[in-house]
Design goal:
The chain is globular, with a radius of gyration of 22 Å. It has helices spanning 2-43, 51-59, 65-99, 111-124, 131-154, 162-186, 188-198, 207-226, 228-234, 238-243, 248-270, 276-288, 292-317, 325-348. The chain is 80% helix and 0% strand. It has 14 helices and no strands. It is mainly α and 349 residues long. α2 packs across α3, α8 (207-226) runs antiparallel to α11 (248-270) and α9 (228-234) packs across α11 (248-270).
């Protein structure tokens, strides 16, 4: 009898150890991919630079052409790509977990529309003409939109359920989009300023923009780490989560605040970049499973790798000009979204 019990236990232990080992390997590979993307972001462009020149420009700048390119042009966009990529990918994991919708992404709660409204308001009403000035209005608009969605959804009969959050967010997204387009249609100057921001990309931003959004990104990541176990319980249903001792209201609130902070910071700084928040969580879950601690960690590595990779591709496709990273990610994301929708239909059927 003892032998019959011990063998399955040993087998389970070996499987658990193998699973952890596989996840660690995937995490290390994802970190290596991110490192390669960072190196490519520094080295590649209309003026390619060898790695040794990049390193010298970073640690011992001499005022030459290579130092100017690396420190004044590529360092700011690489730093911003890291912050925005992490924020969008982790926010995507949170939105998909909170709404239990595999096709959810950072636009689903109207937060991107809130950031857009803040930027348009800054340009048309307050006359802000610099990207560093847009950032604060974009973050403020995103935060207000997120708070409004949760406040309205919580007053519903079933509370802030996944369906209620999605419906309220979609309604707010449509309403704010209408206001934004109305303001753009009556003010040509606002439209010209807004057009540069709304394409989505990393070019034209200095290092101060990345430093402005960094506190919001760090706060969002800290909250996401705190609610990771609760998100695993929510995936089993509210009743099961309560039975396991989780306070689902606090889990949803913490996850929602984290997602709003991350999305607001990313969209305000780089514009509404598509695809990263939708695709990266799916890829991470395929690699490490549904445990949100691992999914969040791997997404935080793959998100910036993808965004920096798209930015590098945009530089190399049509030199000496550039294609914004937001356009490159959208071109990749459209067929992927069609695939995900088709796969969801097949599963439902």
């Amino acid at each position: 009898m003892t032998t019959l019990v011990s063998r399955p236990a040993a087998t389970t232990g070996r499987r658990g150890t193998a699973r952890v080992g596989r996840r660690l390997t995937v995490t290390l590979v994802a970190a290596s991919v991110l490192l390669l993307a960072v190196l490519a972001s520094f080295a590649l462009g209309s003026r390619p630079l060898p790695v040794d020149q990049v390193w010298h420009a970073l640690v011992a700048p001499d005022g030459g052409e290579a130092s100017t390119i690396v420190r004044e042009l590529r360092l700011p966009r690489t730093a911003l790509g890291l912050a925005v990529g992490v924020a969008l990918a982790v926010a995507g994991v949170l939105f998909q977990a909170l709404t239990r919708n595999p096709l959810a992404e950072p636009r689903i709660l109207g937060i991107s529309a809130g950031a857009s409204f803040g930027v348009v308001l800054a340009i048309s009403v307050f006359g802000v003409s610099t990207l560093a000035g847009y950032v604060w209005f974009g973050i403020g608009g995103a935060l207000l939109a997120g708070l409004l969605v949760f406040a309205v959804a919580s007053r519903a009969r079933e509370g802030a359920s996944p369906v209620t959050l999605a419906l309220v967010g979609a309604a707010l997204d449509a309403s704010l989009a209408s206001v934004v387009f109305a303001l753009l249609s009556i003010d040509a100057r606002t439209f010209e300023e807004y057009r540069f921001w709304v394409v989505g990309g990393l070019t034209g931003r200095d290092l101060s923009v990345a430093l402005q959004v960094l506190p919001f990104v760090l706060a969002g990541l800290a909250l996401a780490a705190l609610v990771a176990r609760g998100l695993d319980a929510l995936a089993l249903g509210d009743d099961v989560a309560r039975g396991l001792g989780h306070r689902i209201g606090l889990v949803r609130l913490g996850g929602g605040v984290a997602a709003v902070l991350l999305t607001g910071a990313a969209v305000a700084a780089a514009g509404p970049i598509a695809f990263v928040g939708l695709a990266v969580p799916h890829l991470a879950r395929a690699l490490v499973g549904a445990d949100h601690r691992w999914t969040l960690a791997v997404s935080a590595l793959l998100g910036p790798a993808l965004l920096l990779g798209a930015d590098v591709v945009g530089r190399l496709v049509a030199p000496p000009g550039e294609i914004p990273a937001g356009i490159v990610t959208a071109l990749i994301g459209a067929p992927l979204l069609a695939f995900l929708v088709r796969r969801a239909r097949v599963v439902t059927a």
